[in-house]
Design brief:
The protein is mainly beta. The protein has helices at 18-29, 57-67, 108-115, 125-141, 183-189, 201-211, 422-428, 507-511; strands at 2-3, 86-87, 90-91, 93-95, 97-101, 120-123, 147-150, 154-155, 160-167, 169-176, 217-225, 231-240, 244-251, 262-272, 277-285, 294-304, 307-325, 331-349, 352-371, 379-387, 390-400, 403-413, 437-448, 454-464, 474-476, 490-492, 494-503, 517-531, 543-556, 560-569, 581-590. Among the domains are: 243-342; 350-472, no CATH class; 494-591, no CATH class. It is elongated, with a radius of gyration of 33 Å.
Length: 591
């Protein structure tokens, strides 16, 4: 039986080769669509573009059928089996096996197993076409969408049918639209699209996911016909923004002993040396009396030279505040610290992403102790302390159809002798030794509810093996803890904190009003329980805090965000009585 190779570029579909010809005719009819950049946001589709662009893997294949410019030839003008029988206009023959040529990507045994179901007696040219299509689909399932399968002209003898695999390679990769990120950097970050490569979808998806995580940079590959048969040209269409950002925030995150307002500022540049290194500076002050609170910090973030996916951060903080300070890290106390963080992304499992963060800090703080005997003048003494803890933190994130979950687990260790002096710890806290162990857990869940409502739960807690100095204690009270109380109103060695919020649908979308305004009302309940290790006989345990109330958060354009909470204290502390209430607020402008 003879199968002749037939040129298909300029003739209509022929009976017996419909799959081959229709494939190319569909590609030609969709020619204008080839140049439309798409962006699929799901993991089942290639993540290749800007917001609201979407293309499925099937569409990829249709596009690539045109792109490759390869002539798929098949004919079923005559087909005859070993018995020489005919059925209608189609000859019937037997297929014992397939001879696959041109394959360098997949193991031969794997292909043979996939094609086994296509063998047998009483086959026609339509069955050969189905086998060709099935082999192409098998390559797509394995992640190779630029592979096409051809039926060459042949004589079927001894039940063997030849199929030719054409592994389409990338000819050139052009970069357009970039202003602040160089062509060399983009090409380096996307090696799967380099000239000479065969596109492998899983790796290409990973590279695009990583490069598109940058909020200032988005790239969409557009595939075009190559100059030569069996090739693909790729244009990387880039949208980038100037990577300088700043923000200014006014809030009332104060303590009982200071004025109410706080002013925080941040400025950072996120593409130093065309390597996406980031340098950042922050400040905090109390604008009503700038002598009360002063804090400064700087940080430098880079990709690790030995592993580009790993991140290395170095930062320093000088603080003269008892309020938690720092964006992406927090410091409580008066003094300074320098620290290093090393972030290791771990292998993803479907939508489950996780990472490990290793850290070491050098901390030098001081505390003013007031000794006063009855009838005598107050005597103040500064108690300095220097120590060097290390930390290990595991973080994970899992989105699903009904919400998303975040999880953290951390361990902080102090070592005597590594700048830690036991007598310094004992001077600040009875039975504090400096070789402490702190274990922490955190869990967050955002849950979709009926009628577009949303629930949010946050749990966190920690335990330690010994009394801690105040800089390392668990703190409760304030806007991010228990509302209705001042910031860090209560400190304890061991602690647990929980927050529950019920959020309404976004109001402006319901009202069909200005799409530049975002308003989300909610109600909340906060709870914290704190305990001290080995308290003195006269020392009272910190106790519990409870607060409930309502609030609203949102944005006005993309440059201004806000949050206002009214919280009522539901339990007593040393400085707040049950039934007291206060308003917490923050307004932040950024670009």
């Amino acid at each position: 039986m003879n199968i002749k190779q037939t040129h298909t570029s300029f003739i209509p579909p022929l009976r017996g080769a419909g799959g081959v010809f229709h494939f190319f005719n569909e590609g030609i009819s969709r020619k204008q669509k080839v140049f439309t950049p798409p962006l699929p946001p799901s993991r089942e589709e290639l993540y290749i573009g800007f917001k609201n662009w979407k293309i499925s893997l099937i569409t990829w294949i249709v596009i690539l059928g045109l792109v490759l410019g390869v002539e798929n030839h098949s004919s079923a003008e005559s087909a005859k089996d070993t018995s020489g029988k005919e059925s209608g206009n189609d000859l019937i023959f037997k297929i014992d096996s397939f001879e696959i040529t041109g394959n360098t990507l997949l193991p031969e045994q794997e292909i043979n197993q996939a094609m086994q179901a296509m063998t047998g007696p009483h086959k026609t040219s339509d069955d050969v076409e189905k086998a060709r299509s099935a082999l192409e689909a098998f390559y797509r399932e394995k992640g190779y969408p630029t592979v096409l399968v051809n039926i060459p002209e042949q004589s079927v003898t001894e039940g063997i049918v030849r199929l030719e695999v054409i592994e389409g390679r990338i000819r050139i990769m052009a970069v357009t639209g970039n202003r602040y990120y160089t062509k060399e950097k983009i090409i380096k970050d996307l090696p799967s699209f380099a000239p000479g490569e065969i596109l492998y979808m899983p790796q290409a998806r990973r590279e695009l996911n990583i490069i598109n995580r940058n909020p200032d940079f988005k790239v969409a590959p557009v595939l075009m016909p190559g100059k030569y048969p069996g090739t693909v040209d790729v244009e990387m269409k880039v949208k980038d923004k100037f990577p300088l950002h700043a923000s200014l925030e006014l809030n009332n995150r104060s303590t009982h002993s200071t004025t109410d307002l706080r002013l925080n500022g941040v400025i950072h540049y996120d593409n130093l040396w065309q390597k996406e290194h980031s340098i950042s500076f922050q400040f905090q002050t109390s604008p009503e009396d700038t002598d009360e609170v002063q804090a400064l910090s700087g940080s430098y973030l880079l990709h690790a030279p030995w592993k580009d996916e790993h991140l290395l951060a170095v930062f320093g903080v000088w603080s003269d505040s008892d309020t938690a300070f720092g964006q992406d890290f927090q410091v409580i106390g008066k003094g300074f610290l320098v620290g290093i963080r090393y972030v290791i992304p771990l292998p993803e499992y479907f939508t489950y992403t996780h990472h490990m963060t290793l850290g070491i800090d050098y901390k030098d703080f001081e505390e003013l102790l007031d000794f006063q005997e009855t009838g005598e003048e107050s005597q103040d003494e500064t108690v300095p302390i220097t120590y060097m803890p290390v930390s290990f933190v595991y973080g994970a994130f899992l989105p699903d159809g009904s919400g998303q979950t975040g999880f953290t687990a951390g361990l902080s260790l102090g070592f005597r002798g590594a700048a830690n002096q036991q007598r310094d710890f004992e001077n600040k806290r009875y039975k504090s030794r400096g070789n402490y162990v702190i274990a922490e857990l955190g869990l967050e869940r955002t849950q979709k509810l009926p009628a577009k409502f949303q629930g949010w739960v946050k749990l966190s807690g920690r335990v330690t093996d010994q009394p801690l100095i105040s800089n390392e204690q668990f703190n409760a009270g304030g806007m991010d803890s228990v509302r209705g109380y001042k910031e860090s109103e209560v400190l304890g060695d061991n602690g647990f904190q929980s927050t529950v919020e019920l959020r309404s649908p976004e109001l402006m979308s319901l009202m069909q009003a200005l799409d530049q305004v975002n308003i989300i009302p909610y109600i909340f309940y906060d709870y914290a329980a704190l305990r001290n290790k080995d308290p003195l006989p006269s020392e009272k345990q910190p106790g519990d805090l409870q607060g409930a109330g309502m609030g609203v958060r949102g944005s006005i354009t993309r440059y201004l965000t806000y949050q206002v909470d009214w919280g009522m204290a539901l339990s007593n502390s040393d400085k707040t009585e049950s039934g007291d209430s206060m308003i917490h607020f923050k307004v932040k402008g950024s670009f």
